[in-house]
Design goal:
2 domains; globular; about 500 residues; single chain; alpha+beta; FAD/NAD(P)-binding domain; 5-stranded antiparallel β-sheet; about 35% helix; FAD/NAD(P)-binding oxidoreductase; Arc Repressor Mutant, subunit A; FAD-dep_OxRdtase
């Protein structure tokens, strides 16, 4: 089969493009090296923020697409049944010099078309954020900023794209691309795909994919950011996304509520070379804590429940802007260097890529039966007692709590596995229903999740992985392991004394 469009990468950008193209009578496939949507790159590990759009330089793609993307989220989240919240954001100043920077950001935001933007006094800041550091003297307040779960949104895009005919091929790392006449041959370790157009949305690997096809080279390097997530009993300390005055390395270390009620701190910012280095460090986490306490000094770092690292795809171009457009290889579209505010910009990037493909010769005929809405997600903990009782009568699996920390039921886990582009791993379940994201980090629910995955996927528990590839949860049956170990020790004792 020759696809009309092949998209490399199932992050938020790749899945946004897939969903946009699913509105048309096209054969589209997304090829992803990971085992799931949002399983590898920045889409699973970022600040989970909808940026208002005051930070990008006016006239850049970042500025234009940030503001447009921000405007699109309300309708998208309603259609895709994804929780989001317009919390607003603050950029706080601690000196007169930093107040000057606030006015620069304000002017930039006005030029970018950001609405509901203002500079407010300390008293007004304290009304919005009662627990903010007393040393704050002013802030830039952007009401259009918000919070969301990046991986939940990305998975929702993938589900809706699949409902509308887009195919997904996971565990399919692209190792070579060649163009033969008018068709691209995209090679993975197990299969070759053929497509008339290729969209490169491969995140930190977008330069590698670009260079495979022989297009004009560019370079993308990873910028590492380390984060901490604190328990939900610390979530009250921030109502908005609290930034400090940005630097040349980015928007700085923030303090923010999450859509699920936790407190998020980070990210640090460090340019590295290794595109796979995602370890947290003592130095990085300590820096995040120290800087964050400048904004909110009352959080209890002992309430940290997990840490993680995200890698931003930073382009080595003079403009430091998104790289979006048809390359000098006809039909090969780059969507590269999509660092912050890339998540917010993703829906608008999808519209732009659609138009680029059209200009490149792709015929776009709208489907009469496109369905913009995905099947609603049952979130048991949010239901009324009456709704819970009715649901349990219909399906007893919703009466069995699997994850105590987040009150996740067996019915929700089963649904996460059976949905389009369903979960295939423990982390896949975790991203969809939060089982394992609470205080105990999966200590209680982990074995039960493995059991349900094995049953639903009709595989052995020994085949269940944490996040695909060789990340197996179990090494073998305990009884057999103990018998083998006992036999080994007996042999050593018998023959060792001979």
């Amino acid at each position: 089969m020759v696809y009309d469009v092949l998209i490399v990468g199932a992050g938020v950008v790749g899945c946004s493009i897939a969903r946009e193209l699913s509105k048309y009578k096209l054969k589209v496939i997304v090829v992803e090296k990971g085992e799931d949507a949002a399983s590898e790159g920045a889409s699973k590990a970022n600040s989970a923020i909808l940026h208002a759009g005051y930070d990008p330089v006016p006239g850049t793609l970042k500025a234009k697409l940030n503001v447009r993307g921000n405007e699109m989220f309300e309708e998208l989240c309603k259609d895709l049944d994804v929780p989001m919240k317009r919390t607003g954001s603050l950029v706080v100043a601690f000196s007169e010099e930093e107040i000057k920077e606030l006015y620069k950001l304000f002017d930039r935001g006005i030029k970018n078309g950001v609405k509901e933007l203002s500079i407010i006094t300390k008293d007004m800041v304290k009304e919005i954020e009662p627990y903010i550091n007393d040393n704050v003297i002013a802030a830039l307040y952007a009401k259009k900023a918000g919070i969301i779960s990046p991986y939940v949104f990305t998975i929702a895009l993938a589900e809706n794209a699949a409902q509308n005919g887009v195919e997904f091929s996971f565990n399919s790392e692209v190792v070579d691309i060649k163009k033969k006449e008018d068709v691209f041959v995209v090679k993975t370790p197990s299969k070759e795909f053929y497509a008339r157009y290729v969209v490169n949305a491969a995140g930190v690997y977008s330069d590698v994919i670009n260079n495979m096809v022989g297009a004009k080279p560019f370079s993308v390097h990873p910028r590492k950011g380390e984060y901490l997530i604190l328990d939900k009993d610390q979530g009250y300390l921030a109502r908005t996304v609290i930034f400090q005055v940005p630097t040349k390395m980015g928007k700085g270390i923030l303090v923010s509520p999450t859509i699920d009620g936790n407190l998020l701190i980070g990210p640090t910012s460090e340019d590295i070379q290794d595109k796979e280095f995602k370890a947290t460090t003592k130095e990085g986490l300590n820096k995040a804590i120290t800087v964050a306490k400048r904004s909110v000094d009352k959080f209890d770092v002992r309430k940290t429940i997990t840490q993680f690292t995200g890698l931003r795809a930073t382009p080595d171009t003079e403009e430091k802007d998104f790289i979006i457009g048809e390359s000098d290889v006809k039909g090969f579209i780059n969507v590269a260097g999509i660092e912050s505010p890339g998540f917010t910009a993703a829906p608008a990037i999808a519209e732009m890529v659609r138009d680029i493909l059209k200009d490149a010769g792709l015929e776009l005929v709208e489907k009469e039966d496109f369905n913009p809405k995905r099947k609603p997600v049952i979130r048991f903990v949010e239901l009324s007692d009456e709704e819970k009782n009715r649901l349990i009568k219909e399906n007893p699996a919703y009466g069995r709590i699997v994850c105590r920390c987040e009150t996740v039921t067996e019915g929700e886990v089963i649904d996460a596995i059976r949905r389009p582009v369903g979960a295939k791993s423990v982390d896949g379940v975790k991203r969809r229903v939060r089982a394992g994201m609470g205080r105990c980090q999966g200590s209680f629910c982990g074995p039960r999740i493995v059991e349900i995955l094995a049953r639903e996927l009709n595989i052995s528990p020994l085949e269940v992985t944490k996040h695909g590839r060789n990340s197996y949860i179990l090494a073998g049956e305990t009884k057999k392991f103990l018998l083998d170990k006992a036999s080994e020790l007996l042999k050593k004792e018998v023959y060792g004394n001979a």
